[in-house]
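Duplicate of earlier report; D-lactate dehydrogenase (cytochrome) input re-posted below.
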Amino acid sequence: MSAQYGKVDTGFVTSLRRLLGSRVFWCEDSQSREVIEENSRDQSFHSPAAPDVVVYPNTPEEVASILKLCNDARVPVVSRGAGTGVEGGAIPYKGGVVLNTENFQKIEVFIEDMIARVGVGVKKLQLNKELEKHGVLFGPDPSSNPCLGGMVSTSGSGMSTPKYGTTRENVVSLTVVTPEGRIVKTRQEVRKSSTGYDLTQLYIGSEGTLGVVCEVVVKLRPIPTVRSGALVRFASVEQAANAVIGIIRCNLTSLARCELLNADGVRATNEVFKTTLEVVPTLMLEFQAEDPGHLASDYAKAKEQAERFQAMRCEYCASGADIDDMWEARRGCYPAAMSYR
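Output:
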């Protein structure tokens, strides 16, 4: 560890264990090796780096105590969620403490306000499974099924951005612990507020550099009644990209997903997921609305744009369930490409 940082020694670890008991895992303890290893890497190609200690707090107050201790001892801290990132953001290259947030599992739904208060350790699919009971969903849809903390820290977007926007557009407020150990609520849980600085937007996308997010209040949307989809095949990526520009300009209100795989991406997906997609640049579309006629109308406009740019084939799926396997394959495109290499 660089000399500018403090040392993680027995005294420091003893102080952490006074706070958290058995939820502290030190690299010097043989029984902690598996936990240390799990928290030394993410889903990226970046080399792993082992932390000196991993902690699992349960509350913002425990996070505050940990950060105060680390700040006083000048020990570096990396906050971690599901570890699904592909940029190395959760890897503790300076050692120190990994603050794992997976125990933050609160889900409170306020259906009358169309918001939910969610712990940052809750994963996106887990949240939407709970929200489905209330007929609502959380719109952003990153393919990797990250936790809410990871989505906030990176302003994760994903496949449903055309309809729902990124995480940034779907967060009302945050509970954050600053590096000095102060608990901050960024704003009141109301839809409209013009008072003071917009701290919520400051923290979203900051990747843990400004503090540790513990809770997120998110906006909810009604689950669409009907879904449909389409596969549109092109001879070149350039033609497909131009078609996307034309489709977006049409302002199709039911367009929820618009994803493009190049031929190599299709080939890798076929290899790993045993799909049988034609190995050409392929545009994947999904439409969501309350009226099947609305879906068909928007698809016709999208098809018109695709044919303007020499689409080879357009295949329409009237039922959204018919394209679910396709979307699962799209979610796995990155790991498929990595393993195919």
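The chain has three domains: 10-100, 107-222, 226-340.

Merging into the original ticket.
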